[in-house]
Structure formats: C-alpha cells, structure tokens
Write a structure and sequence with these properties.
By secondary structure, the protein is an alpha/beta fold. It has helices at residues 3-16, 20-25, 36-42, 60-63, 77-80, 117-127, 148-156, 173-179, 199-207, 216-229; strands spanning 50-54, 69-74, 86-89, 102-108, 128-139, 183-196, 232-244. A 7-stranded mixed beta sheet has the order 3-2-1-4-5-7-6. It is globular, with a radius of gyration of 17 Å.
Length: 245
C-alpha cells in the first residue's frame, strides 16, 4: 500500500477507534507478567525526567510514568482526547518541541508507520539530550514461531502479505540509526499473550488489527474464526529497539 494511503488509513482508524490499541495490549502479558508497555518502559532510564511519546495514542505510557514530564504527540484528535499528560497534535517531523528537550523518546507500536524512517530518527536525535535514550516497540512478523491462530486471522483479513511503510526488516537498520545520530544498542523480541475469554471479545480483538483494505465480509470471517476458538490465548510477537544518542 502506498504511503499516502497508509497515512490516511491510520488517521481514520485511530480517530474512529480511540483507545483500541491500549485496550488490547494493556491486557497482554509475557512470562514475567509484564504488559508490552511495561516492557518498553523498562528500557527508559530513571534519570529521564522528560519523556516525549511519539504517536502516543490514548496515553498508556504516560499513565505508567508517574512523576515524569511526559509530552504525548499524535496526529489523531480522537486518541488525544483520551490521553494523559501534556498532549500535542502534530506529525513527525513537524514537532513544535525544542531540540534537546527530552531525556528519552518512546514510541509504542508505531515506528513501522512513521515514514520515512530516516527523517523520524533524525527528529528523535534532535529531541534527545546527549546520552538520551530512544525506545520503540513494533509488531514482529517473524514467520518462525508464529501462532497458527494469529496467521489464520491475518489470512481471513487478507493481510498475510501486509507490508508496513517501514518494515524494519533485513540488514542495515543499525546503519540507518547511526546515520541519524543514534546508536542502536538493543534489538530483541518477546511474546505477549492476551486471553480471549468470551465470544464478545472476538470483535474487539479483530478490530484492533491494522487491516487496510479489509472489507466487512473479511472482518466478519475473522471475527467468526476467533469466536470458534474461544476461550483461547492469542500470542503477539513484539520487537523492542533501544538506541542512544
């Protein structure tokens, strides 16, 4: 899908479904009992008193950082209306924030959409103080170990070949970070499980997927596939990238 269509799809999706991503991921846990948000924030240094949250959505990270100054940036007015902390409606790279204002910049499940990546990383480096930290989580589309049910849902939605504007795959990612003034110091994947306990939960889970181009019949087929499996634990593979300025 061309980047302009992705941008329009994401904007319309989040304005129509504010809080959907948070509602889903907040209930997912890894083997240590952490949510994806907890795992992301473990990489944020305690000394980072000001944190900029790019594509902040409904503010799940800000709610988990009491005592810090969190500036949430998002293009969706709908998401920002549910957010916590200081909120700014803007898009990368046109951010009305001073250079060197942040000890940390974070972004949850959004870096693969912030195209072009090089421009985004350059803006992250601008916002960070020397020694500051950037932490991002993104979906992992690794074929190895993918849960069959998850693959079935993607197939029903027609998304098995979905390509994000910035897939972040292959070699050269460290070099792209480096060219923007950041040193990629961490790249790991974890599995988080979300219990789908009732048939009524199936539609919420399916509608949390990015599925550009999926029609009503495909969404209904995916919902029915998940309803047939309830109760079930749905596994999400998530990748965490950590970089320093």
């Amino acid at each position: 899908m061309p980047d302009a269509r992705w941008e329009r799809y994401v904007a319309e999706y989040h304005d129509a479904n504010p809080g959907t991503t948070e509602d889903l991921l907040a209930g997912a846990r890894d083997g240590a009992g952490r949510s994806p948000y907890d795992w992301l924030l473990e990489a944020v240094p305690a000394g980072a008193t000001t944190v900029v949250d790019l594509a902040c959505g409904s503010g799940p990270l800000a709610r988990r950082l009491p005592g810090r100054r969190v500036v949430g940036v998002d293009q969706s007015a709908g998401e920002l209306s549910r957010g916590a902390g200081l909120r700014v409606q803007a898009r990368v790279p046109a951010l009305p924030l001073a250079g060197g204002c942040a000890g940390a910049v974070v972004t949850s499940m959004a870096l693969m959409l912030l195209h072009p990546l090089d421009t985004t990383l350059t803006e992250v480096a601008r916002l960070l103080r020397p020694g500051g930290t950037f932490v991002a989580t993104v979906p992992s589309r690794e074929k190895a170990g993918a849960a069959p049910l998850f693959v079935d849902l993607l197939r029903a939605l027609g998304q098995t070949r979905l390509t994000y504007p910035e897939p972040l795959d292959g070699d050269g990612l460290a070099e792209r970070f480096g060219a923007s003034g950041l040193t990629l110091s961490g790249d790991e994947t974890a599995v988080f499980v979300r219990a789908v306990a009732r048939p009524d939960d199936a539609e919420q889970v399916v509608r949390s997927f990015y599925a550009p181009g999926a029609g009503p019949a495909q969404v209904a087929a995916a919902v029915e596939r998940l309803r047939q499996a309830v109760p079930v634990d749905l596994a999400y593979r998530i990748r965490r990238l950590v970089a320093r300025r």
